[in-house]
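Issue: ligand-bound run for molybdenum atom - logging full I/O for the record.

Environment: standard queue, default settings, no custom constraints.

Inputs:
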Amino acid sequence: MAKDERVRIDPSEITPEHLYLSRRKFMANVLAGMGAVAVGGVALSACGRQAGPSPTAVDVDEHVRPTEPPSTPAVEIPSLPTLSTSEDELGDKLTPYSAINTYNNYYEFTFSKEGVAELAQGFKTDPWTVEVGGLVNQPRTFDLGDIFSGFGQQERVYRMRCVEAWSMVIPWVGFPLAELLKEVEPTSNAKYVRFETLYDPDQMPGQRNKSFPWPYVEGLRLDEAMHDLTILATGIYGKLLSPQTGAPVRLVVPWKYGFKSIKSIVKIELVEEMPTSTWMAQAPQEYGFYANVNPNVPHPRWSQATERRIGEIGRRKTTLFNGYEEQVADLYEEMDLSVWF
Ligand SMILES: Nc1nc2c(c(=O)[nH]1)N[C@H]1C(S)=C(S)[C@@H](COP(=O)(O)O)O[C@H]1N2
Ligand SMILES: [Mo]
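Outputs:
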């Protein structure tokens, strides 16, 4: 599609007013009806940790096995927007719910993508708090009640492109990170935002592996964090997030490789210096701070020119900024994108 023909995503289009359903008692036991299935296929090198073959096709509906629903939060949760569409703004089909919930990268549980759902069953996501501080005038700790009552939950359908060259189309539920950041009032010294995942080796067996610098840390420049496409997600397909997809609250930055979208966040800090993310610490020559999806800059061990959409046979072309160029290119006007990977 030619650049000027591309559909611009107007947030009001993504989230029509009628999707905000009236607030009513909505206990998370709606999740009891949720069944997750396992994905058959070849275990991949997770985020390129082990040198590995390029991803192979996966049959997303193989090997059905039931999993328990996540624990029921004690907080009252307003109804989440129900699913309104079956495709993204480019006409790409949503990835099946079962695939999104059984093909995961979550190293706190395991390096195997197909094993996360099972190991994360029973992961305790309530009570939960997100501490927001650092260079802010109004530091604050948000509990789940604050998050669900304080911010209108919207539907956002985004492509997610993993650095390993597979992708999905996911109908998230969440709200702009900017709304939360505005509440804590970043000071003029704040230039970056640093995020941290829960550290709890008793619940997250992968964290007992000392070769990885836990807890998982990610970061954004403040203007990236304030961009309307950047959300804190609380759900998928109109249901609360499952443990394996990052419950109860995770970051989603759709124009960057998936590893930036940090799961199960407990801490958000406004800082002056560029934070060192987990992947920068682990392999700085392979994973940069920016990690913008870019078909023209290969990973040192594989091409990024194409990707495998989960559920599809064959590969498709990867697009600059994962198809969100019109919305985000101006954030990087001054930067040489081949150097700032
Ligand atoms: N805390 C944490 N967040 C994480 C990861 C992780 O291992 N730990 N993996 C990242 C990677 S590499 C990807 S591709 C996405 C995968 O999200 P999904 O499992 O919901 O598809 O989560 C990202 N967030
Ligand atoms: Mo990833």
